[in-house]
Amino acid sequence: MKRTSSRAIALAAAALALFALASCGGERKLVDRYATTYITEAKTLNYFLLLDSTSQRVAANTQDGLVENDRFGRYVPSLAESWSHSPDYKEWTFTLRKGVKWIDAAGKPTQWEVTSDDFVEGLRYVADPKNGIKNVSTIRKVIAGLNNYYYDLLDFDDGVDIGNSREEVLASFAKDVGISAPDQYTVSYRLASPTPYFLSYLVTELFFPVEKAFMDQVGLQDFGTAKERLLYSGAYYLADWQRDKQVVLQKNDQYWDAAKVLVKTINMQKVGDPTISVQMFTRGELSATSLQADQVKALEGGNWAKFVYPAETSSVTYWFIQNFTSSNPEFKAFVNNENFRKALYYGIDRVKLLELYDPYNPSGLLRNTVVPEDVIFDEAGTDYTDYKAVKDLKARGNYYDPAKAKDYFAKAVAELTDGAGAIKGVQAGAVDMKPIADFKVDGKLPLQIVYVHSTDSTDTKMALLLQAMLKDVFGAANIELVLGSFVDDKYNDVVKPRRFDLTYDSFRFSFADPISQLGRLTTKGSVNDGEWSDAEFDALVSQGEAENNLAKRFDIFSMAERMFIDRAYVLPFQMGGGAYTMSKALPFTYPRGGFGTTRFKYKGMIVESEPVTMERYQKLKAEFYKELESTLKK
Questions:
Q1: pLDDT tens digits for 516-535?
Q2: Domains in the chain, please, with CATH?
Q3: 3-class SS letters over 333-350
């Protein structure tokens, strides 16, 4: 077995403080409280069900996995103090820290220690379709035997005769699924194929541990529905959760790495209006706030302008999704036509939309690919997005082209209408998307498209801008964008019940391989929220998944992604993060990573009494990247 580094390679808290102070030219007062905001209320804090950024932040800080990312993005020990793998990367063994106790909602150690069985039980919970873990598709084919086990349960639940009872299938987990606990402090994984990037899976919630005795006490339905219905293994515990008001995280004094947790209290307040967040920051009530375009401009020339600096971008990709199974017969007819989808592809001015987030450098937020840049590399260090099939997409910039958009739309109209504006096969009638939208169609141009957005002020501005943009490009006689909004949860209120034609969404990148995103976008894939179907794309993704040589694998995947983008199933246009921020937290002091939950951690974060200036941010950034380059060469 090949041995991987068995010691932590994160910097000590004292060293981080010295780094910060050296960069600012003098001492500043450190504070141990961080106040921030959130927009979307979490329906549950069950850390296996992370459907929003609020629950992701809570889970990241209250639960630890086997490994985590340090501030350079490297994989370092967490609940596992060491690990090893076989030469073919198919067997991985992790040795746990001894004496790590599960903590209750009062911050007190419980009777239970975190052991290897907790990781086995965590995966057992994730693997049961009855528990509704949406992202399980990302690992079903990774762990040996997991795919067959999952589908046996799913088939049984769907009434298929599989020759075994549900209890018999559940009992087969220990024998058939590639996870085991040889002893109290050893967790072993047997993988279906060589997976050198396996550590990137382990920073996701799918590999969190769970104490089964406690879960049995509170019940599967109630697990994570209150702070007392969770146990905690991370740097913080959930001290308070008042729905639609606030979430308070308190430092876990029993934490195995407590010396690196410098902030004792994390206070998260629900604030839906970003303007209010900026006002709260300037009054000293918040430790950080993001800023939108109009807010940045409003601060120009004032005392606060010097504290505005660029926020870091992320591996999250934002895109427009189109509903291929819409109950709106007009849109359903058009969206299943490739020429129409290409018309939308070229008819939306991404840069204009991104000015809402960054008025000074909106093109810096553009992303034209599904798989992000600067995240995945082959054996030679070549970025996946520099492979031939997708390289020009990345470099294309804003592909807004009104003339080309009109040309594609004319082709679609010629194919889908009778020449007099009547849409073939579409009858007049009512479209019920209540409570989002409720309207009538006449089966004629203009094509009515229901665009659904949140009530957030920037999302509303973007919807109005998109409405005006499509009217300007295609004309009011051809396309009418009908606006609808949701208040609570996009997936459950809009996507799942199919109450949209077009909407704006994002998906986080899960692990260090293109299959992370492309595999979920195939027919019936877990993030195929448009419900498109393309057998040719599916076949290419399957071919890439079966190839273990990274260069060949990435070449196939890049061809699949190019096909997917060229056929305009989704319309990617923005990278996550970015725009601008004001903060009292020193950048580059907390975990950094392209996937999973550890990028939401506050561990290691240094917070000062005064905001960081743009000038200081630039110095910190230069020093960080110089240190990062030096670190990666070692």
A1: 889 989 999 988 999 999 99
A2: 2-143+178-283+579-633 (3.40.190.10), 315-577 (3.10.105.10)
A3: HHHCCHHHHHHHHHHCCH
